[in-house]
């Protein structure tokens, strides 16, 4: 079976928003690759499918975490509260 892979990042990162967008897209891509791998394995080997569920859960949480950070960043950017956002990230 083909294993999921992540392509090299060639994007220019100029702001924290850029970094969060790239991170979100990468985590979402990995999630979708695990999902495809899981769907293929359900018909071939249910033990492998069961094993993959833990990775799907980890990726689901990672996508959600990046999505939350990105949303908070966008609000902070619009309301000019970037320093407050920076403090929030330092508290993580």
The Cα radius of gyration reads 17 Å
Report the helical percentage.
Answer: over 70%
Shape: elongated
List SSEs in N-to-C order.
Answer: HHH
Based on secondary structure, the structural category is: mainly alpha
What's the domain count? Answer: 1
Count of beta strands: 0
Terminus-to-terminus distance? 37 Å
Q: How confident is the prediction overall: mean pLDDT?
A: 88
Major β-sheet profile: none
Low-confidence stretches: none
Give the percentage of residues in beta strands.
Answer: under 5%
Task: Tally the helices.
Answer: 3
Plain-language structure description:
- The structure is a single chain.
- The chain is mostly helical.
- The chain has one domain (16-90).
- 77% of the residues lie in helices and 0% in strands.
- It contains three helices and no strands.
- The protein has helices at residues 16-44, 46-78, 82-90.
- Helix 2 (46-78) runs antiparallel to helix 3 (82-90).
What descriptive keywords fit this protein?
92 residues, mainly alpha, 0% strand
Secondary structure: elements and pairs:
Blueprint: H1 16-44, H2 46-78, H3 82-90
Helix pairs in contact: 1-2, 2-3
Short description:
By secondary structure, the chain is mostly helical. Helices cover 77% and strands 0% of the residues.
